[in-house]
Amino acid sequence: MKILIIRLSSLGDIVLSTPIPRLIKKKFPTSEIHFITKKDFCSVYNYNINVDKVIEFNDNLFEVTSKLKNENYDLVIDLHNNLRSNFIKLMLGKPFHTYRKQFIKRWLLTNLKVPIKINHITNSYINSLSNLKINDDGEGLDFYIDETSFNKVKSLPGINNDFTVLIVGAKHFTKRLPIKKLIELCDKINGPIVLVGGKNEIESGKELESFFNYSKSPEVLSKLNKNTKIYNYCGKLSIPESASILKLSKIVYSHDTGFMHIAAALNKNVVSIFGSTHPDLGFYPYRTSFSIIQNNNLDCRPCTKIGLSSCPVGHFKCMMDIKFD
User: Which of 49, 89, 150, 197 gives 20 to 30 Å between its CA and that of 316?
Assistant: First the structure.
């Protein structure tokens, strides 16, 4: 049996989909599994032992569907369920199973603040396989790291047996701590901290590095806990290299973002920081040890399921008033 799995974006959702090929392989050991996703996220599956081929989606639907037709799939698993994935299914004309979004439940929680039970998205992905008589194996997420990436980061400054990782960024503004709160968190951690982030976090990484490593102000120094040391790798590493750092760390602090789920896949102890979103939406760390930092004293959150470019009520208290006890 030849099977195509579709999940085009984003990083977190793709990591959260990783039990699917494993479960299919367990049910159909001789199956050939292909996974299609955007170029930026192919590395999540490049070394996955349960995926035989990773196909890069270049935003040209007609070109990619033409190539996919030549593969002659027996079955399509759609874990995205949007216009593009539905177009691919239509053009391939093969039997398919589709992930059911919990859109109404998430709308009720974010817009009307109705307390409602929402399945973790990974469980929803797994439920899309129920007609194939495939059930959860309880083994959580997968993330396979290549040896080259792992060996590269082992020799980097700050990578030892006793460091904390801080995932600096997140795609949307309302999911990110302001720099003032990041400084407060780093001081609270009070030890060696390795910063992980993409190109958008380069400036924040430099600011944290400068504040803790090079500040000479007696007034500033007198208020600090003294032991924070920053090792800044924002914008300097690939996804597998950043994942290697997470694997070697003792604990990971992360916003509600893709690397939080990579940390969960690596079975790390995760401290998740939620602002405008909420763990009840079904995106909390999956099957790993974790704790949540969030402001529970607001009637306005969650205001979104994915994050926003600005606070819709203007005060941003979900992050500004957060406590690091």
Answer: 197
